[in-house]
C-alpha cells in the first residue's frame, strides 16, 4: 500500500531534519473568523475522539507536551495551530464522534471541523487517523464522503499498531485498501504508525515535507 521508493533513507532523513527545526504553538481557533490570515500551506489531523491525534503530533516533533493529550475523549475542543519554522502550519482538529461533553457542544465542534475542511483553500492535505484496533467506523466513512464532496485530499494514518498483531494489521490494511477505492479524494497510500514505538513517524514526516 505504500510507495517504498519515495521512503528512501535519504528522503526520510530530510524529513526527520525538517522536524528538528523550531515549532511553536500559534493559537486555538473556536470559530472560523479566528483562522489565521495567511497563505502558508497547512495540513490538518482529523479523527475520532481519542484516536491519538495529539500523540502523533507530539511524536512528529519528538516532544511530549507540544500538543495536549488526554485519556478523556473529546478534550480537544478547538482547532490548534502549530507553526513549523514558518514553512507550514500543522492543525490539530477536535475529535469527532464520541466525546464527554453536552450534545450541543459536540455538534458545535463538529460543525466547526466540517466548515473548516470545506472552506480552507490553503489546506493541502488532511491526515485522517484511524485506530488500528477498531478500523473504520460509520462516522469515519461519513467524514470521507464529506471530504470527497469538498475535493479535499486526505490520507489515512493507522494509529496504535503496537497494540495489535501483524495478522490483524494486515487485515486492517486490506479493509482500508478496499474502502479507499470508493473515495475519489483519498490518497492511495496508508501509513501504519505507533507514536509510542515511533513506527511510521518518519514516513508521515516525509508526506508533510512533500507538501511544502
The gist of it:
With 212 residues, the chain is an alpha/beta fold. It has six helices and seven strands, in the order αββαββαβαβαβα. The protein has one domain (5-209): P-loop containing nucleotide triphosphate hydrolases (Rossmann fold, 3-Layer(aba) Sandwich), CATH 3.40.50.300.
General description of the model:
A 7-stranded mixed beta sheet has the order 1-3-4-2-5-6-7, with helices on both faces. 34% of the residues lie in helices and 19% in strands. Helix 3 runs parallel beside helix 4. With 212 residues, it is of the alpha/beta class. The model is unreliable at 70-75 (pLDDT under 50).
Write the layout of secondary structure elements.
Elements: H1 9-18, E1 23-29, E2 42-47, H2 53-60, E3 79-84, E4 88-92, H3 103-119, E5 123-131, H4 138-150, E6 154-159, H5 166-180, E7 191-192, H6 201-209
Parallel strand pairs: 2-4, 2-5, 5-6, 6-7
Antiparallel strand pairs: 1-3, 3-4
Amino acid at each position: 500500500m505504500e510507495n517504498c521508493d519515495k521512503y528512501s533513507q535519504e528522503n526520510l532523513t530530510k524529513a526527520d531534519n525538517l522536524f528538528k527545526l523550531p515549532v511553536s504553538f500559534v493559537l486555538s481557533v473556536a470559530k472560523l473568523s479566528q483562522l489565521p490570515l495567511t497563505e502558508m500551506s497547512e495540513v490538518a489531523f482529523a479523527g475520532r475522539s481519542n484516536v491519538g491525534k495529539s500523540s502523533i503530533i507530539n511524536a512528529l516533533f519528538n516532544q511530549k507536551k507540544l500538543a495536549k493529550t488526554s485519556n478523556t475523549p473529546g478534550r480537544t475542543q478547538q482547532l490548534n495551530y502549530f507553526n513549523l519554522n514558518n514553512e507550514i502550519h500543522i492543525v490539530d482538529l477536535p475529535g469527532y464522534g464520541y466525546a464527554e461533553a453536552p450534545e450541543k457542544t459536540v455538534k458545535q465542534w463538529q460543525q466547526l471541523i466540517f466548515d473548516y475542511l470545506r472552506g480552507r483553500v490553503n489546506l493541502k492535505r488532511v491526515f485522517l487517523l484511524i485506530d488500528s484496533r477498531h478500523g473504520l467506523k460509520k462516522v469515519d466513512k461519513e467524514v470521507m464522503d464529506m471530504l470527497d464532496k469538498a475535493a479535499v485530499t486526505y490520507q489515512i494514518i493507522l494509529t496504535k499498531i503496537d497494540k495489535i498483531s501483524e495478522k490483524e494489521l494486515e487485515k486492517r490494511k486490506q479493509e482500508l485498501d478496499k474502502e479507499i477505492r470508493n473515495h475519489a479524494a483519498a490518497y492511495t497510500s496508508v501509513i501504519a504508525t505507533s507514536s509510542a514505538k515511533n513506527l511510521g513517524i518518519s514516513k508521515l514526516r516525509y508526506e508533510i515535507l512533500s507538501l511544502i
